Write a sequence for this structure.
């Protein structure tokens, strides 16, 4: 288990402690694309635009991203049980509220004609052919969208907001080149996961992409998350406004062990995975229609919640150091 504060928006600061926003007010709009230089030793270096970047290797920054579970266990282990129980209860409610959508989604998969079945009704050997119109439309949507979103020159394009200067233009080109290098060369999964996301988008009407720093590969990663693996409360209009978002993840024992060694999860002994613990009948049907056997899944099922919690011992406080009762964002 892990409980981490949600990452805030990082603000680049000047050597004198002022945020860049104040500097921009004094110097005018420099645009959003800027390049920074940092020495191998992590020292601050002046850049071509007169901006400096702070050293990320600070104790305060490291403390913010620590796993709070270890501290909570020392203070009050019952808090973890209470948090886990409440979140699991809310998850079951959110899961049951979308069963009709899951059933409609599963029935729609059969119309693709991806699964060959031997029919016995209305007689043995009856034809079970589906018209390929839906599958053709889906493939056409995916192929045309891939051409638009992943051109040969790279998917990233930059736009300078505000006054254009030769420095900004050079910085804009550098940013686009660097990001395209990462997406096309350093992240080999990016294109495949992007194509899978477009398939899911055309089929289910919703698809998600999760971009995060992977501690096991020491680089950013981008994966496709199917709509059925994202669970939100009924009535949530967007992920940004939802009070909780659950990502249903499935990881092998070795993947879990790597994350434990890196400190992402607590290093405790785990029991054998329960396989399809959170695969209901509808989700099993989805897997079967796609040609998989849900009963053979021997991975661990992990629920990663991005949720607002009024966590005991870490309450939000006003200027008088009194708890406000405001729930703060955490990743559990």
């Amino acid at each position: 288990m892990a409980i981490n504060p949600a990452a805030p928006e990082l603000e680049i600061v000047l050597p004198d402690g002022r945020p860049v926003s104040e500097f921009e007010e004094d110097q005018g709009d420099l645009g959003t694309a800027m390049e920074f230089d940092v020495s191998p030793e992590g020292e601050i270096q002046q850049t071509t635009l007169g901006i400096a970047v702070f050293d990320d290797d600070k104790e305060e920054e490291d403390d913010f991203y620590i796993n709070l579970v270890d501290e909570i266990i020392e203070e009050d282990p019952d808090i973890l049980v209470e948090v886990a129980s409440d979140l699991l209860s809310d998850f079951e409610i959110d899961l049951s509220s979308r069963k009709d959508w899951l059933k409609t989604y599963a029935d729609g998969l059969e119309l693709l004609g991806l699964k060959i079945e031997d029919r016995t009704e209305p007689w043995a050997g009856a034809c079970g052919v589906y018209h390929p119109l839906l599958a053709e439309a889906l493939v056409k949507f995916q192929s045309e969208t891939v051409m638009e979103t992943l051109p040969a020159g790279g998917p990233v394009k930059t736009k300078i907001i505000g006054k254009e200067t030769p420095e900004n233009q050079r910085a804009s080109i550098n940013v686009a080149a660097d990001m395209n290098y990462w997406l096309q060369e350093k992240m080999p999964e990016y294109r495949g996961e992007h194509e899978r996301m477009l398939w899911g988008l055309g089929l289910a009407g919703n698809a998600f992409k999760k971009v995060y720093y992977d501690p096991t590969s020491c680089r950013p990663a981008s994966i496709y998350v199917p709509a059925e693996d994202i669970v939100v409360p009924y009535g949530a209009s967007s992920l940004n406004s939802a009070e909780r978002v659950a990502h249903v993840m499935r990881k092998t024992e070795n993947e879990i062990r790597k994350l434990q060694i890196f400190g992402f999860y607590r290093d405790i002994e785990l029991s054998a995975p329960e396989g399809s613990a959170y695969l209901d009948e509808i989700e099993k049907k989805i897997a079967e229609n796609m040609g998989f056997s849900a009963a053979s899944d021997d991975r661990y099922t992990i629920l990663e919640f991005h949720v607002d919690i009024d966590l005991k011992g870490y309450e939000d406080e006003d200027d008088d150091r009194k708890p406000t009762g405001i729930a703060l964002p955490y990743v559990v």
